[in-house]
Every structure is written in structure tokens, then in C-alpha cells.
Amino acid sequence: MAVFRYLYGPLYFFGFVGGATALVSSDSSPAWLFVLIIASIGTSLAAERIAPFENQWNSSHGDGRRDILHALVNEGSLVAMVLLLPLITSLVPWESAWPKTLPLWADVAMAIVLLDVGITLAHFASHRVSFLWRFHAVHHSVRRMYGFNGLLKHPVHQFIEVTAGALPWLLLGIPLDVAAVASFAVLIQLQLQHSNVDMRVGPLAYIWAVAPVHRHHHLASETDGDVNFGLFLTLWDVLLGTARFGSSQHIRAGAIGLAGIEDYPDAYLAQLAEPFRKQAQSLPELGPQSERQA
Questions:
Q1: DSSP characters for 205-237?
Q2: Is 203 helix (H, G, I), strand (E, B) or coil?
Q3: Average pLDDT, the chain
Q4: What is the dihedral of CA 33, 38, 40, 43, to 10 degrees?
Q5: By the 8 A CB rule, do 178 and 104 touch?
């Protein structure tokens, strides 16, 4: 079991992203990527039963249907973005500046880093700008962490993060195959970030923003949760001064969520409406830094 805990994270990420890279390189049908998506979700759920971090997080909180709806809408938006890339990039009034000679895996690595910068900065801003926080609070409303609800986001916030992250792709004229694999990698990484597997990554925790690092971010605390914003890498948090690398073994059931807010809606449609309600002006404790300092 100890071997499983240490190998799970790297094998899951490089196994599925490597598989997607191989599929795209071989000009296989894009439908196979959807098969890989289903396989990645099934693998994540199975691994959480084999080596759970917190047993209570494996029990349904009546959130299954809601989480499925969030995943379908938000991952559907990523697919739509990839499909629209050729049209969008055709509107850029200069030729593609994306490197032409790199192997696909190197292109994907570069795309991930570029995407990660924009998404991390948008995430960081969402804890400091009240308008953005209203939409981001939906993601922080979860009361358990498991891989599948890493895909839970308000569609407005999903659009903001994806736009911020994909802007360098659009300006540089990213090839469609690179964008497809890098977008697939986002889904894999989100599941690893929120995984309920008791994974051990050793020194990689200082580089790679997976669950042992990201749990700190979901603490129901106005200060303790204001850390570790990176999606893939911890580098941006080091530069922002928001990195926390201590053990997250103490972050268990009851420790995550929205501090001071007991009645945040659980249903999908209610969560979509919540940011637009007047009451949303009264932000939860875990919110924009500027509001906390006011």
C-alpha cells in the first residue's frame, strides 16, 4: 500500500497525459480522448477507495448529481474552447509564433506552463476582488475533497479562468493538437489536486500542486486558506509569497468549506444563481483580501 501511495500521483498524471499525447500523435479519433476522460474519472474514484486520505470524504454528501452537472458543463466548455481555437486564432492579425520544431510532449509542457500562469493569477485575483470571489465561492463551498469535484466551478468563473489561461495560447497561435492534450491535462490535474487518495509525493510537493499541497487552500479559514493558488506548479505561489509546504495531514472532514457560512446552497441551479443574489454582497470569511482588511 505504501508503494501505491507514492506511485499513484506520477503514474496517474503521466499515464493519462502520456496516453492522450500518444493518441493525438497517432492521429487517432478524438473520441478516444473521451474514453480516456471516463477512464481517468473511474481510476480516480477507485484509487480513493483503495487508499483513502479521509474515509468520510468517500461517502456521498448528496452531491453526486450536482457534481456531475458541474463537470459536464465545465468540461464541455473546455472542449468548446479547443474546437473554436482555429476560428479564434484566425482572427489574430499576425502569423503563428508557436515553435514549429518541438516534439508534441515539449509543446504540451510549454502550453501547460503558459496556461498555468494565467489561471493562477486569475485564481489569486478571485480571492481579492469581491466580484470574482462571488463566483469562485461556489468551488470553495464543497464540504469534502475528492477528485471528481475538482471539476466543480461556476461557469462564469470557469470562463474567466480559461480566458486568462488561454490568452497566451491564442496570441501565439497554439496548434490544435497541443491545445487538446494540454486541456486534457487540466482535467487530470484538477482530479489530482482534489483527490482523496492518501498520496505521498515527497520533494515533488515543492514543485507540483497536487492534493497534499492544495488541501491547505480549501481550509475554512480567512488566513490559512489564502495560500497555494497554482494549478500545476507551486512556482507562482513562491513568487506571490502565498506558498505553503507544511503537512496537510490534519486537514480532515469538517475543516474545509466556507468559514462562517452554513447555508450556502448545495443544488446545482441554486449555486449558479447564488453569486447574483443580493446576499452575495455579504462575503464569506474566506474571501477577497481587500474585504478582510477593510
A1: GGTB--HHHHGGGGBSSTTTTS----SSBSHHH
A2: helix
A3: 91
A4: -150
A5: yes
In the numeric block, the cell 470569511 is attached to 285
> 264 by DSSP, 3-state: which?
coil
Q: For residue 150, count CB atoms less than 10 angstroms from its CB and return exposed for 0-12, middle for 13-18, buried for 19 or more.
A: buried
- In this prediction, residue 262 carries a pLDDT of 79
Flag whether the pTM goes above 0.90: yes
Q: Is 197 helix (H, G, I), strand (E, B) or coil?
A: strand
Cα separation, 1 vs 147, in Å, equals: 19
Residue 270 pLDDT grade (very low, low, confident, very high; cuts 50, 70, 90): very high
Measured between alpha carbons, how far apart are the two ends of the chain, in Å?
Answer: 48
Mean pLDDT of 166-179: 93
Q: Where are the alpha helices (DSSP H) in the chain?
A: 2-25, 31-50, 64-90, 104-126, 130-140, 155-172, 176-193, 211-214, 235-240, 268-273, 289-293
Largest Cα separation within the chain, whole Å, is: 56
Domain spans of the chain? 2-293
- The DSSP output letter for 204 is G
Q: How crowded is residue 230: how many other Cβ atoms within 10 Å of its Cβ?
A: 27
Query: How far, CA to CA in Å, does 55 sit from each of 10, 13, 154?
Result: 23, 23, 27
Out of 67-71, 79-83, 145-149, 228-232, least confident range: 79-83
Q: CA distances (Å), 97 to each of 20, 25, 119, 140, 255, in order?
A: 24, 21, 21, 37, 46
Q: How far apart are CA 131 and CA 115, in angstroms?
A: 22
